[in-house]
Amino acid sequence: MSDPLYTEIIIDEARNASNEGTLENPDISQHDSNPMCGDSITLQMNVNDDSISDVKWHGDGCTICKACTSVLTQLIKGKDLGYVRNLKKEEILSELGLEYLLKQSPIRIKCALLSLKALKLGLYTFLGKKIEDSASLNNLKDEASKLY
After folding, report:
1. 68: domain CATH number?
2. Residue 3 lies in a domain
């Protein structure tokens, strides 16, 4: 029996990954890595009128990491920051049929969600720099603390 992780859509998405590359002078740039398996990516975004006008990523990752990063960038490109801020791990996983990883494979789930983690870290850092009052900043910190 073949490994259900490596379906045709996952292999194709990893081989023909969308939005791979770099941005010149991105508004958001966030690197993250998974020391357990060696995945390492940098996610870069430009923000225009409170939406993600462009997104690119680069780095080394396993097939699952690359496929999920490709799908994530497709989901957020052109979307407003509210949508991106509320994007859930289940949405990324369901795009590739990987929902079962949440319970069955804690190691592989880290590969699948590395780009979402980088996205959220970068976005919250970006938003935090724009907030001037301490109450709003505390609310943002509280929201960010409940991500995982």
Report:
1. 3.90.1010.10
2. no
